[in-house]
Amino acid sequence: MSPNAVNNLIAGAAAVQAVSALAVVFLTAYLVRATNKYVRTTERVLELDWTPDLRIAQLSHPTASHVVLALANLAKPAALVMELKLGVGGRAKMKHPPQDIDSYPLPLLVAGGQIEQCHIQSQLMSYARKRNPTASQIGMSIAVVYDCGGEENTSAWVDCEVNFAQDRVTGARLL
């Protein structure tokens, strides 16, 4: 083989090495960028999934003797409801907090992603007797205190209307 051919082969091999080194650099940069994007997305998803989020979903009066409160847990971990809070005078949509707040024990476990129901007729009657025993209708606000992931939280206040007659609840609905 002539020295010229050997020099051409060496030059060609050097060019192949240079091109492959550039390709490795570009591929590495692309993989780093893709990995960083994956990490940021995963952090956002985990942050959303594990954030405590228990909401009052529904208030109904299905029978003459029951008022049912439905609680929806939108978080992954279970939420342990500890107490029901009732107040008057507030308007949640206008961000006015309620006054005359009373708390009532309400032990209830709501699994992550689930909806649980509980009966609150006795708490509503107790609150109404203390505040205005002769009222036929009271505008109230409801919230619950719960533990989710070792952190105590209070749900958003929700406005409702409760009707009374002859020492019993005759209707209840969220506003």
Describe this structure as you would to a colleague.
The longest helix has 48 residues, at 3-50. The strands form 2 sheets. Strands 3, 4, 6, 7, 8 and 9 form a 6-stranded antiparallel β-sheet that branches. The mean pLDDT is 87. The protein contains 2 helices and 9 strands. It has 2 domains: 1-50; 54-174, Immunoglobulin-like (Sandwich). It is rod-shaped and about 115 Å long. Strand 1 and strand 2 form a beta hairpin. It is an alpha+beta fold and 175 residues long. It has helices spanning 3-50, 121-131; strands at 54-63, 66-73, 79-88, 99-110, 115-119, 137-148, 151-154, 158-165, 168-174.
What is this structure's SSE topology?
Blueprint: H1 3-50, E1 54-63, E2 66-73, E3 79-88, E4 99-110, E5 115-119, H2 121-131, E6 137-148, E7 151-154, E8 158-165, E9 168-174
CATH topology of the largest domain, by name, is: Immunoglobulin-like
Sheet-strand content, in percent, reads 35-45%
Mean pLDDT across all residues, rounded? 87
Described by strand count, sense and barrel closure, the largest sheet is:
6 strands, antiparallel
- Low-pLDDT residue intervals, each spanning 5 or more residues: none
Structural class: alpha+beta
Treating each run of at least 4 consecutive H or I residues as one helix, how many helices?
Answer: 2
Helical percentage: 25-40%
N- to C-terminal separation? Answer: 94 Å
Alpha-carbon Rg, integer: 31 Å
Provide the succession of SSEs: HEEEEEHEEEE
Q: What is the 3D shape?
A: rod-shaped
Please name the CATH architecture of the largest domain.
Answer: Sandwich
In total, the number of strands is 9
CATH class of the largest domain: Mainly Beta
Tally of discrete structural domains: 2
